[in-house]
């Protein structure tokens, strides 16, 4: 596995690479991860939970990062034998030129969608990159929809979740709701999103102006470039009904799902959302935009509702509709779906089958 995103960094790609690595290990694969140093206290090599972690330092400007990573990988394959190299994210792909080991690439990033949208010279650059892998994976159909031909086999494999890590805990629910000042009759919506453009959290803040349900409060976990803008909107439209906890480590977020009554995904771009799957594993119904991989995890009217992206009014309407429905039953449906379709072990088995198809 080659990824700039790996614990202790946070985010969807980090969670994907970590959980997939653990699940592949648990079904008998030997896994190594090549990732960057986050701080000077980390070791250049260590084994954590039976996964070998090799860290590289990146110097100078971002354009040269791909070249540095490629040099690092070439040195690494002289020391260790690998059957597959699996790259996550575009930067490690840019200067990759190792010929003797089959390359797998997972197209996670909204950066890809931005490049496609801007077009121009970016399209031939993307084609050059996508000609390198033998297997091209994506956690949403949208990220497989590439507007040019290339040789790799293209396969959709969703994100996953370790369901039992997020099972609702009634004792923890009471403790956290007391800490947050949430009354028994109040409904708590949780939003575990970085406050950046693609996640659409500002549209949820704007939606608070249109809520009819007076018992709803919102809990935001995450920070980012839109933090101040979102706080200003909430203070104007939703005063005393919101809580901003800022950024938290992935393991710190888990208990907050138990305290919530629904989860909200207001994204403008999204794969099969890991935070959405985590909320489902905690028996929460979902409200999410009808983009990317979100319709894969939200079956409209069964475990939640889909809404239009960039529409505060529709988002508010669907949240009110959910709270007027049997949202507890919808949350139970979420849990059933996660256990059946989105367990990381099942995702790992599908990924391994695809590995075998190119070796």
UniProtKB/TrEMBL annotation:
Residues 173-335 form the Glycosyl transferase family domain. One of its GO terms (molecular function) is glycosyltransferase activity. InterPro entries: Glyco_trans_1, Glyco_trans_4-like_N, Glycosyltransferase_grp1. Residues 10-161 form the Glycosyltransferase subfamily 4-like N-terminal domain. PANTHER family: SULFOQUINOVOSYL TRANSFERASE SQD2. This is Glycosyl transferase family 1. The lineage of its organism: Bacteria, Pseudomonadati, Campylobacterota, Epsilonproteobacteria, Campylobacterales.
